[in-house]
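Most newcomers find our protein records easier to grasp once they have seen one. Sequence and backbone structure share a record, each on its own labelled line. To make this concrete, we reproduce a full record directly below:
***
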Amino acid sequence: MLIESSRESGRQLIAGIADYAKHFGPWNFYWQAQGLGSIASELKQIQVDGILARDVVEIPDFIGKKIPTVIFNYSKKCSSDTGWATTDNLGISRVVASHLIQRGFRDFAFCGFSEYPWSVSRGEGFKKIIGEAGYEVNICLTAAADEAEHNQEIMEWLLQLPRPVAVMAANDELGRRIVSLCNQCGIRVPDDCAVVGVDNDLVVCGMSNPPLSSVSVDQHRSGYEAAAMLDKMMNGEEFEHYLIEAQAGELTVRQSSDIVAVDDLAVAKALEFIHQNGTRPLKVDDVVSISGVHRRSLEKRFRDHLSRSIQQYCRESRAEYVAKILRESRMSLEEIAEQCGFPEASHLTRFFISMRGEAPSKYRKRVLLS
């Protein structure tokens, strides 16, 4: 198992693989927490039945010897010669874009690594989703190596962006770096520049100042499914599709993007009121009354600033509040329904399915396992 444990994504992959082996093994692993290359050289003297590896490890010899192999995509494009596990980069970008659009931003940017296909793909996905909402994205692709050398390049790019701007970083490490560069050149986070990363690595996000918002990726399930694929390959089974995609999870909002970027006072008042009343069903007239303008005017301003109606925004905000309770508490559906103003748990379930595409019980189980 040639997978690093220094990143959250790697640790989740390893945990998923280990869980599969626990359920359907036993398997004996050759693995080291650091130094993937050292194991690769050792494997030439070790008899193995299968390999799970990042594609940064050169293992064509083992594929050539027909050793069943599943590769976790990082630096190369997937091919059809073996099993591959990658990430749903469009889905990840969609989660980030939705969060930033909902916060009222009109100017968007993406910063990523030019040599990594997953990073380029996330940038393309972010540009596509933002474009569908009627906005443009300023993209900066930099080299992953020689961080100090490219810091000046990123800083100059940040300084020429409009303000306020919302930036999606290709991963948490780059997101933390962007926040640090903003601090160095006097760009306020999140007031001038909101930043969101990918992976939701608690250590990296916590090291950021302010703490970094980030979307999780279900690498645990990806590791589990990759191990299941490898198991079948070792038993001689063949597949029509040798590809696994890790799906986007929840976006955890932290201080780096916890802001409403709307310069319209009436809309800002309405948004604050909606966010403060996530526990109860809001009527459009409730929101209008707090804004100080007529309903038709507020509806138009909502669509201009947020690309959605007042009712749609209220429903999305309420669904996010319910999701937060499901993630962070052990309350029963009946208790959550009562707290959030639903007559019965069945009403809560129907509402959540209409907004999130899955039942609240299924959602809770999925996010707690990821």
